[in-house]
Amino acid sequence: MAGGVWGPARGAPVGALTLTALAEGIRASRGQPWGPPAPGPQLQPEPEPSAGEPGRAATAPTAGGEPLSPPPPQEPALGVPQQTPWSSWEEGALADLAVYTAACLEEAGFVGTQATALTLSSALEARGHRLEDQVHGLVRGLLAQVPHLAEGRPRRAALRVLSALALEHSGDVVSALLRCSPAPNRAATELWRSLSRNQRVNGQVLVQLLWALKGSAGSQLEALAATRALGEMLAVSGCVGATRGFYPHLLLVLVTQLHKLAWDAHPPDTPKVWAPSHRGPPHSHASCTVEALKALLTGDGGRMVVTCMEQAGGWRRLVGARTHLEGVLLLASALVAHADHHLRGLFADLLPRLRSTDDAQRLTAMAFFTGLLQSRPTARLLREEVILERLRTWQGDPEPTVRWLGLLGLGHLALNCGKVRHATTLLPALLGALGEGDPRLVDAALGALQRVLLRPRAPVRLLSVELRPRLPPLLDDARDSVRASAVGLLGTLVRRGRGGLRVGLRRPLRKLVLQSLVPLLLRLHDPSPDTAESAEWTLACCDQALPWGLLEEVGTEAHYHSPEALSRVCHRLVQWYPSHVPSFLSQTQGYLRSPQSPLRLAATLLTGFLVHHSSPSHVNQDLLDSLFQDLGRLQSDPEPAVVAAARVSGQQVALLARVQPQPCGWRLPRPGRPSCLPARPPPVYADSPFQHCSLPGRWGCSGPG
To answer: I want to staple 609 with a disulfide (CB 3.0 to 4.6 A). Which of 484, 525, 570, 643 is the partner?
Structure first.
């Protein structure tokens, strides 16, 4: 190897050659006309190399101190420089010139640097494959000398040497640069960007960096250096075009790299919760990977993808151990919306990864596969039955994350179908997931069922029957996201079935609505804003499907917590559904024990108004006794407003209990005669401590207006 001859130990920097003779040899090798053949350049013999310079005899034909004698003159063959009789002479010339250039590059301000670099770059373009052993030394010299070279021709000449080396030795150049610049420095950045601007070599260098990134599983420093180099190259305008043919592969490798970084630095089984301000572990490596991804997308015209990810918090999610797959799903959605020209390549590239034994690679591919199903043309690349079978297989996986991705995929598949097909396969899997303990699975199943209802010919009746025992418990789920999704699903179901409800059909759906009416009214006061808004929208759908005429009251109660509006709602419900009053009261009674004070207060008010507007014949004595006991327990509630409201509602229960019909001897009053039942005064509640939005003086309720 000639690498041992670098630096001052070499002796004379040029040896027995001159730049003029070398330039003539280069022109001859390219088939250019040159002067009449001479016996050879007048060269002075070079001192014999020392024994400590191994490999010198193989690279310099002048070993032993004998003068160089050129072969007989012969016209070189055009276009075939490798066959010229000057090849052995040039081999020694290139070796000597590489030594000389390295010496120049290691000494800042050397007067021959520019000329030597220009000559060497010309030689490398003609005989680049002759200098495998000198690549690392030249790269080291470039890194040391480039910061000291003046702007203009000297610096461009040195950078031209690097590009000429990379043309034939891209792997060696990339390896040398990665080893010599593990930490960020301006010189390495300039060298990477110079390679990026050269369209003859940038594609080869990017491929080498990609392989370096894939092969650096055990070396974080090498992976970091390769990622940083990719980001620097892709940031140069026009370089992303060189990734044609492996753009999807590069994108998947970078995203998978983020998954591995997140897991290595913070395993998902640890209890830490990622804060929105946390930028991911480790900061330098993850941020470099994100910047490389942004550069890759922006350079390909995907600026909207980057913007959507920023607005949705996708980059922050990508670097979190618990949120990485959510970030992948957001990225896939953004690609579907704004960069669909790469979807086919991505889809084809990720299919083999779905069976990978590497968890990070497999789960990232699954998330991409799930997200790309939102694109109907992409989903058609595989038969619907094949995709459905794959998603069903995921449902049987013991890992909850895999089942979650499968449910999301079923939802996307249902949305892309022209009409709901495979209902016998889709619905059992989605309905069965409603009983899962992981909130992600329940949310995904509820979202998929909503998508099923949005399609033409949706199975409204079947879902009304199936959801009646499953949906009401989810309306009171302890998880905010599950409650909001369940309330929204009920609204979608009512909206799709409102035509039948208006004409008296949809009996299963009508029963489900009445069963869910009290939870919906009380969820208007839910501490979760999403659940409260969803409850208001669902009640508005119910008001349209079942002509109650309570849309204004529902909106007033939702936004102002007005007892007057709530009184009118209760009066109308008692009039329309007198047989359901015991059920309404029993459901409200359960919320009197809620740990959330807004719900306890709302349930107390609802109990008082339902009791006030109910006829004595609607409620039995046992239910009244139970209500009176629960309201009595609220007299010791920590919230003063709940205590005051419980006192007023308890009085209403006591008044209704006094006018209960007796088992014997009780008769309805005769027409025309005043009733013997005493008039019950309306309940009057104090202002709400949770939302002071109602007008003053309107809290004393005298019944429905």
So the answer is: 570
The crossing angle, in degrees rounded to 10, of helices 439-454 and 480-496 is 10
Q: Which of 393, 558, 397 is nearest to 410 (CA)?
A: 393
Cα–Cα dist 658/679, whole Å: 11
613 to 165, 194, 276, 584, 673: CA distances (angstroms): 91, 83, 49, 13, 22
The pair of structure tokens assigned to 438 is 């992981």
- Kindly list the distances between the CA atom of residue 638 and the CA atoms of 380, 563, 605, 630, 633, in Å, as whole numbers in the listed order: 60, 22, 17, 15, 11
Q: What angle do CA 289, 143, 87 make, to 5 degrees?
A: 115
Question: What DSSP line would sit under 369-425, residue for residue?
Answer: HHHHTTSHHHHTTS-HHHHHHHHHHHHT-SSHHHHHHHHHHHHHHHHHSSS---HHH
Distances (CA, A) of 470 to 165, 431, 584: 69, 8, 19
- Total-model pTM: 0.73
Encode 487-507 in three state secondary structure: HHHHHHHHHHCHHHHHCCCCH
Distance between alpha carbon 221 and the CA centroid of its chain, in Å? 25
**Interacting residues of 145 by C-beta distance below 8 A, sequence separation 6+:** 104, 105, 106, 107, 108, 113, 158
pLDDT: which is higher, 458 or 148: 458
- Rounded Cα distance between 570 and 549, Å, is 13
Cα three-residue angle 340-342-345, rounded to 5 degrees: 135
**459 CB-near residues (< 8 Å, 6+ apart):** 420, 423, 427, 452
Provide the 10 A C-beta neighbour count for residue 351.
Answer: 14
Measured CA to CA, the distance from residue 128 to residue 197 in angstroms comes to 20
What are 51-88's pLDDT values in tens digits?
Answer: 333 333 333 333 333 333 344 443 433 333 333 333 44
SS (H, E, C) 595-653: CCHHHHHHHHHHHHHHHHHCCHHHCCHHHHHHHHHHHHHHHHCCCHHHHHHHHHHHHHH
Give residue 472's pLDDT band: very low, low, confident or very high (50, 70, 90).
very high
